[in-house]
Design brief:
Strand content: 5-15%
Shape: globular
Bound molecules: glutamine, zinc ion
CATH architecture of the largest domain: Alpha-Beta Barrel
Strand order of the largest sheet: 1-12-11-10-9-8-6-2
CATH class of the largest domain: Alpha Beta
Largest sheet: 8 strands, parallel
Length: about 750
């Protein structure tokens, strides 16, 4: 009979208990013993929940204080030198690597973090040097195995695979071939397996998600070597791959010395009979049949049909699981009190996804899909719902043509008209949109949301804030002003709340990094705009000044990727729906007299597919959606975009393809290194490379910013350069903001003299 297991469960707790526990510990409010108690309670609840839902084999090792890659770094004793202080408390060492400080031990720069494959989860990047030694270090994995067993659970430890670990690591110091470290690494993994074996563990899950990438030379060979080595340790190995299909490597996978393989069969239409053959009758075939990283109820009736024959053929050697760890999905739908019943019936969070596995297992055992048909009714109902489908929106997207993604004229003509209209000086100055979100602003928004203050009172406070921001910018003599975004809590949530087709949860948190969680909106239906969203605020701001006020919007690609998106429509179509709603907003802004409009796309790079061969197709539709949002206006209206945290070198062509009149980007942290992309690529439009880092409170020097702009002017003609900070200022205070911007304006004015 088919068997159910899970690849990982969210570690944060139903109400983000882990976040509050570690933050209390960091603040010195609770001690380590209390911290451990609270975490153990979360684990206990998670295991119980999964077991009750019908999961046979529970994951252990999915818990992490900060990040599971960082836990692996401690397990392997690969602690960066600067974090190896005399401090003997390993948990504090872990926190120091993750965030630069901990209750004990010295402060020192945290390790870098970066996105885990194509998710919004960030891992701490291991730092390895040539000749790095590994040894069995600090790990709570073994204790957790005992903990789960003591609670009567049947467990399967989960490890980040050694080759994925090496792949994700960066070279500390000079570049070297990381794969040379594999033998030493495998020796330590072997020791860990021995310890698990001694604890009575039968199966160990080895995660090698790099198999979904297009791997550089040497990595497949390394995987073969790895499994050959690990298979000598007398525990059964389940290789887990997820986030995409692995079709190109099926032959390799067939030859790996493992006892079972897990495939994600929801990300892409995988061919189950091919997978069945690759794994063979003797080994376990694990199918990820429930999407582990979205929020939708699964059509279990369809799943049953898809796997029924395989189940009959394989029995015990067919395992069922979510496609990937449930780390990427919210914890429990049951807690949501504010979603209507219909919408709720379309959803499934981590707890419900486990229950789905239990239901399928039951149905297969009874050879009857009756319960599944009943369960899947809501999914079918959703597909037909008039609430989801908006014929006008669908028709409008359908009728989109290449022309809708084009401005009337080419950039050279547009910029001439814009210069005529705007008459800006050389090196115009601007900011990225938000100004400090003071306590006052946040409190007012909260009060308004809670119904404690009236609409009129709310508007008045926000208008005062806008007025204050405008006065500051005028006093600083900035050229293109912004209203400051006081009315926005979050750049996606703000628009999601005003657009049709979005829903918001109360507790739908997902870990983003460390103790930080995000609560993405859910795009459940066709997206449309029922009324202007930003026009009144922007118009009010413009009425206060003779300078140009920049309208401020979040772009279609960013709204898409920072939400949970519907699974019944392709991403390009969803992006185009959002783009059309934004296009109307852009035109309305223009018609209200706004001459400069910025459409932010900080998530543009994030949507890149795992396989490089698919990048171009993505970049094409993403850039098109952006252009649809931007192209409804006259040539004389100037469109800006903004991106941050992006590496541009490999996508600079696509960025040019967005055809924004001006792009502002993050460059200051890398000392304009990023501009090297412009050496080989002649970026055609205007650009504002950020001249100071808004992520620190430090005030940038005039001379330092001048040097940066000089550096930029070597690559890009000065007449095409703008001067601005590298991101929005909402996390900063007003005092430091004024000082920094003042220096920025002084630097610019001195340069104007020198350059003209
Ligand atoms: N306009 C936004 C702001 O200034 C942009 C934020 C971002 O790039 N992440 O806050
Ligand atoms: Zn930014």
């Amino acid at each position: 009979m088919a068997y159910t297991h899970n690849l990982g469960f969210p570690r944060i707790g139903k109400r983000r208990e882990l976040k509050f526990a570690v933050e209390s510990y960091w603040a010195g409010d609770i001690n380590q013993a209390e911290l451990h108690n609270r975490a153990a309670a979360i684990r206990q609840e998670n295991w119980a929940l999964q077991a009750q839902a019908g999961v046979d084999l529970l994951p252990v090792g999915d818990f992490a204080w900060y990040d599971h890659v960082l836990s692996t770094t401690l397990l392997l004793n690969a602690i960066p030198k600067r974090h190896q202080s005399d401090n003997s408390n390993p948990l504090d060492t872990l926190f120091r690597i993750g965030r630069g400080r901990a209750p004990s031990g010295c402060a020192c720069a945290a390790s870098e973090m970066t996105k885990w494959f194509n998710t919004n989860y960030h891992y701490i990047v291991p730092e390895l040097h040539a000749g790095q030694e590994f040894s069995l270090g600090y790990s709570e994995l073994f204790a957790h195995v005992e903990e789960a067993k003591a609670l009567g659970h049947n467990v399967k430890p989960v490890l980040v695979g050694p080759v994925t670990y090496l792949y994700l690591a960066k070279c500390d110091g000079e570049e070297f071939d990381k794969l040379t470290l594999l033998p030493s690494l495998l020796a330590v993994y072997g020791q860990a397996l021995n310890k698990l074996k001694a604890l009575g563990v039968e199966w160990v899950q080895i995660d090698e998600p790099i198999l979904t990438l297009e791997l550089p030379e040497g990595y497949l060979q390394a995987l073969t070597q790895s499994f050959t080595h690990l298979s000598k340790h007398q525990v059964k190995l389940l290789l887990a791959t997820y986030f995409d299909e692995v079709n190109q490597y099926l032959e390799n996978i067939q030859s790996f010395a493992v006892d079972g393989v897990h495939f994600d069969v929801v990300s892409n239409n995988a061919d189950l009979s091919a997978l069945d053959e690759v794994v063979g009758q003797e080994r376990v075939l694990s199918l990820g049949i429930v999407n582990g990283r979205n929020v939708w109820r699964t059509d279990l009736e369809a799943v049953y049909e898809r796997i029924q024959a395989l189940n009959e053929k394989r029995g015990d050697t067919l395992w069922l699981a979510p496609s990937c760890s449930l780390l990427h999905s919210p914890v429990d739908l049951e807690q949501e009190q504010q979603l209507d019943d219909e919408l709720k019936s379309w959803l499934a969070f981590a707890a419900q996804k486990c229950a789905e596995l239990g239901l399928v297992k039951e149905a297969l055992a009874q050879q009857s899909n009756i319960a599944l048909v009943e369960y899947s009714k809501a999914v079918k109902h959703r597909a037909q719902s008039t609430r989801v489908n908006n014929a006008d929106v669908q028709a409008r997207v359908k009728s989109l043509t290449a022309n809708d993604g084009k401005r009337h004229s080419k950039f050279a003509q547009r910029i001439a008209l814009q210069q005529q209209a705007l008459n800006l000086p050389l090196l115009p100055t601007t900011t990225i949109g938000s100004f400090p979100q003071t306590q006052d602003i946040r409190q007012t928004r909260r009060d308004f949301k809670a119904g404690c203050i009236s609409n009129a009172e709310y508007e008045q406070v926000m208008q005062e804030q806008i007025q204050f921001a405008v006065e500051q910018q005028e006093a600083l003599d900035i050229d293109v002003l912004v209203h400051g975004e006081a009315e926005r809590n979050d750049m996606v949530e703000y628009f999601g709340e005003l657009l049709e087709g979005f829903a918001f949860t109360q507790f739908g948190w997902v870990q983003s990094y460390g103790s930080r969680c995000v609560k993405p909106p859910i795009i459940w239906g066709d997206v449309s705009r029922s009324q202007p969203m930003t026009v009144r605020w922007t118009q009010y701001a413009q009425s206060l000044t003779d300078k140009y006020m920049k309208g401020m919007l979040t772009g279609p690609v960013t709204i898409l990727f920072w939400s949970f998106v519907r699974d019944d429509l392709d991403k390009p179509s969803i992006a185009n729906q959002i783009a059309l709603a934004l296009r109307d907003e852009v035109v309305d802004l223009q018609n209200a007299g706004i001459k400069v409009i910025q459409i932010d796309e900080p998530a543009f790079r994030e949507g890149m597919p795992l396989k490089q061969s698919q990048w171009q197709a993505y970049l094409d539709w993403a850039a098109y959606a952006f252009r649809v949002s931007a192209s409804g206006v006259e040539d004389a209206t100037q469109i800006h975009t903004h991106m941050c945290y992006s590496e541009f070198n490999d996508i600079i062509g696509a960025i040019a393809d967005m055809d924004a009149d001006v792009i502002t980007i993050e460059t200051s942290r890398s000392n304009m290194e990023l501009l090297s992309a412009f050496e080989h690529f002649d970026y055609p439009n205007d650009i504002g490379p950020g001249v100071y880092d808004i992520h620190t409170p430090n005030i940038p020097d005039v001379s330092w910013m001048k040097a940066l702009i000089h550096k930029a002017a070597q690559k890009i003609p000065a007449r095409r350069l703008w001067v601005n900070p590298d991101c929005g200022l909402k996390t900063r205070g007003w005092e430091e903001t004024k000082e920094a911007l003042n220096n920025m304006v002084i630097a610019t004015k001195e340069l104007r003299k020198e350059l003209s």
